[in-house]
């Protein structure tokens, strides 16, 4: 495998994505490629709710997301391995940002978690299913252990 492994996580899910990060790290190590971990924060800038937030709200969300992502990756794979990971914080729709980041970084694999799906999503959450459908590279879905 060439390129990198891009692992997409939702930092609002607490520790739910630990197995996803761990699997992504193993896959990246197996092929000797870079591991990138991305978290996407919502963009309230153009929505009607934007007026309810201060001008610095987005910057504060991004800074908090960086801390949460760093802590989550450290918890998943340890501080030494985390130091080699590229942490990506993006703003927008999760599936769009993950796909765009994979294309820009030349990722050869995207790793996502299959979280508790609503009935309409049946097997995958909406972001994971969109990433699977629209990605130009392979997508590895990590299912929760039952």
Shape: globular
Q: What oligomeric state is this?
A: single chain
Helical percentage? 40-55%
Strand arrangement within the widest β-sheet reads 3-2-1-4-5
- Spans with pLDDT under 50 lasting ≥5 residues? 118-124
Strand portion, in percent?
15-25%
SS element count, helices = 5
Report the mean per-residue pLDDT as an integer.
86
Number of strands: 5
Structural class: alpha/beta
Reported for the largest beta sheet, the result is:
5 strands, parallel
**Separation, N- and C-terminal Cα atoms:** 30 Å
Order of helices and strands: EHEHHEHEHE
Radius of gyration: 15 Å
Description:
- This protein has 146 residues and is an alpha/beta fold.
- It is 41% helix and 21% strand.
- The protein has five helices and five strands, in the order E-H-E-H-H-E-H-E-H-E.
- The chain has helices spanning 18-31, 57-77, 79-82, 94-105, 126-134; strands at 4-9, 34-41, 86-91, 109-113, 138-142.
- Strands 3-2-1-4-5 form a five-stranded parallel β-sheet, sandwiched between helices.
- The protein is globular.
Key descriptive features of the protein:
5 helices, 146 residues, globular, alpha/beta, single chain
List the helices and strands and how they pair.
Blueprint: E1 4-9, H1 18-31, E2 34-41, H2 57-77, H3 79-82, E3 86-91, H4 94-105, E4 109-113, H5 126-134, E5 138-142
Parallel strand pairs: 1-2, 1-4, 2-3, 4-5
Helix pairs in contact: 1-2, 4-5
Please give a quick description of this structure.
This protein has 146 residues and is α/β, with parallel strands linked by helices.
């Amino acid at each position: 495998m060439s390129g990198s492994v891009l692992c997409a996580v939702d930092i609002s899910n607490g520790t739910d994505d630990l197995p996803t990060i761990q699997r992504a790290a193993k896959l990246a190590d197996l092929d000797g490629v870079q591991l990138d971990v991305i978290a996407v924060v919502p963009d309230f800038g153009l929505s009607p709710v934007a007026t309810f937030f201060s001008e610095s709200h987005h910057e504060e969300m991004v800074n908090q997301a960086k801390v949460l992502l760093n802590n989550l990756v450290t918890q998943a794979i340890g501080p030494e391995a985390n130091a080699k990971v590229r942490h990506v914080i993006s703003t927008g729709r999760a599936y769009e940002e993950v796909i765009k980041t994979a294309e820009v970084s030349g990722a050869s694999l995207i790793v996502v978690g299959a979280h508790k799906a609503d009935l309409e999503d049946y097997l995958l959450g909406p972001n994971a299913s969109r990433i699977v459908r629209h990605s130009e590279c392979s997508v590895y879905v990590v299912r929760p252990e039952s």
